[in-house]
Specification:
Blueprint: E1 2-6, H1 10-22, E2 26-30, H2 33-42, E3 46-52, H3 60-70, E4 75-80, H4 87-96, E5 101-104, H5 109-118
Helix pairs in contact: 2-3
């Protein structure tokens, strides 16, 4: 299946993409929500989006809302390590606004793959 990874931290983005590719998924990546929306428009076969919540340009909550409005069939995994506020706060808000699953950073390969399988 095709997965869109929206993550502004390049190391985290590469980590996620490597795990997904090694598990047999097709992956496209973006550095923020604005780029992510452009990618999903260009790749209409995306079935899962993994998005960070705290990013420049267009943050994750707004991105989730836009994706659910335009592509309601796409499953969303929201990820966050938090910031000043506990990541659970951001993740609860993401769930309330359309994320199908959430995952707190840092996470392991098995945790990520389990979340993808559950979607």
């Amino acid at each position: 299946m095709k997965v869109l990874v929206i993550e502004d931290d390049e190391a985290v983005q590469k980590f996620i993409c490597k795990i997904l590719v090694s598990a047999g998924h097709s992956v496209v990546a973006a550095g923020n929500g604005k780029e992510g929306l452009a990618e999903i428009k260009n790749n209409n076969d995306v079935s899962i989006v993994i998005t960070d919540l705290l990013m420049p340009e267009k943050e994750g909550i707004e991105t989730i809302t836009d994706i659910k409005k335009l592509w309601p069939h796409v499953k969303i995994l929201a990820i966050s390590g938090g910031g000043i506020i506990d990541p659970e706060f951001y993740l609860r808000n993401a769930s309330a606004l359309g994320a199908d699953l959430t995952l707190k950073k840092p996470f392991t390969r098995p945790e990520l793959l389990s979340a993808i399988e559950n979607l």
